[in-house]
Design a protein that fits this description.
Elements (H helix, E strand, L loop, with lengths): L2 H6 L4 E4 L10 E6 L3 E6 L5 E5 L3 E4 L7 E5 L3 E4 L2 E4 L36 H34 L10 H4 L7 H8 L4 E6 L5 E7 L4 E7 L6 E7 L4 E4 L9 H6 L4
Parallel strand pairs: 1-6
Antiparallel strand pairs: 2-3, 3-4, 5-6, 7-8, 9-10, 10-11, 11-12, 12-13
């Protein structure tokens, strides 16, 4: 029996730290050998052998109870004490506090709240790009359909609009009226079609057009419209039948 137990005698004492898995921490000395000390629990009567190498010093203060220190925290398991290996960090316990059972790992607990940051800015940019790509695709499809359709029915004709008021010409104007209004042409030439109808071209390069006169007799040819430098109609006059001279201008060879 170590010197400490001689001081304790028959007085009750408590281990510090308490022996794990034993709830009541009040003991009495029973007997000792050269390697172990037998103690008995004051409440339950449980007897356990404590190896001498784990027994430490005795506290000098005996109130409210004598404290016997242990050099290592012990665990009661299988009828014997063993060094206790902690797997979970716990807060220090009071001297007289009994065994505190480990928390039940299966006990339901509130789920931790994890902050999730949504990438609203990136998603918004991606959505705008998708909408823009879809709009461009639709416009491209419409353009292709329009071009193909106009190519099949022969209606793909572009006009450079020249208002009649800008030229100041009408279907009653002859060569001299045109020269008075537009000036002398840079080129004046006649072209004859099959039959008796003939037409006359007066070229005005500064205006980007040629004025066309037509008639069965050259001295009676009248203004029927104007074409651009590529021979495309840019102005026509109305006919008494309600139609206009666009179809005639398109059929002429002005080059």
């Amino acid at each position: 029996m170590p010197p400490g137990f001689e001081q304790i005698g028959n007085r009750p004492f408590s281990f510090y730290p308490p022996v794990v898995n034993i709830e009541h921490n009040e003991w009495h000395y029973r007997k000792a050998t050269w390697s172990e000390v037998l103690v008995v629990n004051a409440k339950t009567g449980l007897e356990i052998w404590i190896p001498r190498l784990y027994i430490g010093a005795i506290s000098r203060i005996e109130e409210p109870i004598v404290i016997l220190g242990l050099s290592k925290e012990l665990e009661y398991k299988g009828g014997q004490v063993w060094p206790y290996v902690r797997r979970v960090i716990e807060m220090p316990r009071a001297v007289n506090e009994g065994y505190r059972p480990p928390p039940d790992i299966d006990e339901p607990r509130p789920a931790s709240v994890v902050g999730i940051r949504t990438e609203s800015g990136a998603e918004s940019r991606i959505w705008r790009l998708l909408v823009a790509a879809l709009a461009v695709g639709i416009v491209a499809c419409l353009v292709v359909i329009t071009v193909l359709r106009s190519g099949r029915d022969g209606s793909r004709i572009s006009y450079a609009p020249v208002l009649q008021s800008e030229l100041g010409l009408s279907g009653q104007d002859d060569y001299y009226a045109i020269v008075r209004k537009l000036g002398n042409p840079a080129e004046d030439r006649w072209k004859s079609e099959a039959g008796e109808v003939q037409y006359r071209l007066l070229r005005y390069p500064e205006r980007g057009l040629s004025v066309v006169l037509m008639g069965t007799e050259r001295d009676k040819a009248l203004y029927i419209g104007a074409v651009d430098n590529n021979g495309r109609p840019v102005h026509a006059v109305s006919l008494p039948s309600g139609k206009d001279t666009y179809s005639i201008l398109r059929s002429l060879r002005t080059h």
